[in-house]
């Protein structure tokens, strides 16, 4: 008996110690969990996502003392949608750090803050340190988006930290930090405006039910409305608008992503059988939260609030840009759904009637276990897939920026592109046709709408007078800034190449593997200008029974490409294989035209890649078809064949 009493006293003492020091425990757990995830991705030595390179261009200018400048000569631009994230990383750059370590350090702090808030929210629901840690671990390991997006180099972790700080202070009824974090969350990412507005409504509703409306409105005014108005005044004075250029461009200029179903945003969340089942389980758990709230006679239960927030966030994306499917938009709605399911367990523990408490607790636990079972493999794969994309595809996009910088005129380098890494790697002015980082796109758009004579003449010269207004506005930036280097997907139309006197400086084909046209880098070069014509894939023939083709490629043992009579160079990509490939190009009569060596896969962990081949044809092939094959007789996969004219324009 004495031993049992001693054990009980030890357990009670240990539990009491944990409870008294829970914030320290939660912080330590948050640090270890954030560092664990960082070790899986290791983004310090590999390229981050392309959009993060946009942030890093701003940060590079921060180092030189220029506040939020994409191009120094343009002055401040609100092009980084995560202002707080950009500001914090910018300060680190200003004191001497390089851009990529800066964004990773801020992302790490954001992840720590997010996990810390989640642990405290779980404790509010469970009143147990151990159960809180277990609950947050279950939520994290059920997530298919968090592991792959927290360290992409974007504002995801910082924004999630601020959002869940809002939830934490709402549940703890700490009005002042709740309102301040609400403002910071909106400034951090405009997408959270509707979510914060929903929490504000619940805050005022609770104050009304408790008879504290007057005092709450006073706090709302001084700690939410006044700071928000101060932000609006500051951003308007500095940037010209409190709205990010990314929002304005997506809403007013760029075409929205096309609808592929009634709710395209939701498609990636239910793409596989496991995802559909787990999302259905989350849906059942969310439907149970209002019943649990009714049984407990409590309106503001954590699980119910999270379920309502998840529905509201999904509805936002249903209304605003529903075709958007970038992975960094998904952590918030997914996390809200998982928290609704996880917190429903703790909320069910306090149902007053024993039978109902047991029933709802058992059902909630089974639902959470099912969600974890189906989503744990996705959680494991997420950082691996993210790292793979960055190493294979973003490395090539960064390489295109290095090439653009190398071929640019040194006296007046101006790059026309809409990509992040080419802009970051470029040392001159960047005419950003995406409209995300420049106000000039509005000038170009107005010139198109007004049909200004100089604009109309320019479009006629390029042969694009009948093109859509958005495309013409993007192209008009070339005239506005006298751009002389160009990085884009695919080839310019022949009329544009002729009018601008362009030379193709290089092609990078690996991006073809995901269905996007190759990255092409052009440079203005009147003396060496040549037009490059693509060959329609439908005209390219694979010879043999096992041949197959897609939108950008033909795979076969032998590939026949219709030749261009004016061609001086034959350009194409070849997919790498575990063996070296010696690609032979022959005439249809069997004469050797040229050879291209394609090295084998360098690292078996990263087997995807397409290497460029450039075959000189002299004054033209003089044949109707070119035959492409591997000297060993093995099948090849040929991408995007094209011919460059032999004669100068």
UniProtKB/TrEMBL annotation:
| Superkingdom per UniProt | Bacteria
Q: Which UniProt keywords apply?
A: Membrane, Transmembrane, Transmembrane helix
For whether the record's keyword set contains Oxidoreductase, the answer is no
- Sequence intervals crossing the membrane: 24-46, 77-97, 104-123, 129-146, 151-171, 177-205, 217-239, 277-295, 300-320, 326-346, 358-376
**What's the protein name?**
Glycosyltransferase family 39 protein
Native source organism of the sequence: Trinickia terrae
